[in-house]
Design a protein that fits this description.
By secondary structure, this protein is an alpha/beta fold. The chain contains eight helices and seven strands, in the order βαβαββαββαααβαα. It has one domain: Rossmann fold. The structure holds adenosine-5'-triphosphate (ATP) and magnesium ion. Magnesium ion (MG) binds next to helix 1.
């Protein structure tokens, strides 16, 4: 049985950067789920408000599971539940300090509402919840990459994949709500954009 690794998390946390390097280190091919869905004709619509494609995950999961049935991949995906659990070695949810994330997303040129929406998702741990809802806590780990270099973060991903120090990366180990007050953070993010209005 081929067992793939899923790297997931809020937009901007570093999925693509880390999954590509991890794939090189492990010698396991990298698979970008969004591109796969596009190439396989699995896109069902376009959400103009979010500027993102929509997929029917139930169908996409069937197709990807066939694809990954005999060949493992390092899968980079915003949606965690893209593969049947029996084909998954581990799902790693990357977590990034919400304020760091806000700065990163703003630097990408994203507008205030899109930044706020994604930071809120990170604050609440939406990706983690989705991953846990489908795979359960035995297959899901979370890694806080805040302040880590890409190299250091990949080393920790390798530690998790080897099955070491699993307690440290257990779901629930990251809790941004113990650090941030959601309303205060939202105001702080808005003020980041005030400067744009003045120029
Ligand atoms: N550990 C890190 N330290 C510093 N910068 C990083 C780190 N990881 C990623 N970055 C930077 O953060 C930005 C977002 O990274 P990346 O594109 O990999 O995120 P993503 O999760 O794949 O985003 P998306 O969901 O939108 O595809 C990039 O500019 C990348 O260079
Ligand atoms: Mg990406």
């Amino acid at each position: 049985m081929s067992l793939s690794i899923i790297i997931t998390g809020t937009p901007g946390v570093g999925k693509t950067t880390l999954a590509k390097l991890l794939s090189k280190k492990l010698g396991i091919p990298y698979l970008d789920f969004a591109r796969f869905a596009l190439n396989m004709g699995l896109i069902t619509g376009y959400d103009a408000k979010r500027a993102s494609y929509e997929v029917d995950v139930t169908v996409a999961r069937e197709v990807l599971s066939r694809h990954a049935g005999s060949q493992p991949y390092v899968i980079d995906s915003l949606i965690p539940d893209v593969l049947f659990p029996h084909l998954v070695k581990v799902v790693i949810v990357l977590r990034l300090d919400p304020w760091e994330l806000a700065l990163r997303l703003k630097a990408r040129g994203w507008h205030l509402n899109k930044v706020r929406e994604n930071v809120e998702a990170e604050l609440l741990g939406v990706s983690l919840e989705e991953a846990l809802g489908f795979y359960g806590d035995k297959l899901v780990r979370e890694l806080n990459v805040t302040g880590l270099s890409v190299e250091a973060a990949v080393e920790l991903l390798l530690t998790i994949i080897r099955g070491e120090a699993l307690e440290r990366y257990a779901p629930g180990s990251v809790n941004w709500l113990s650090i941030y007050d959601p309303i205060g953070l939202s105001k702080r993010i808005s003020s980041l954009f005030d400067d744009d209005l003045r120029v």
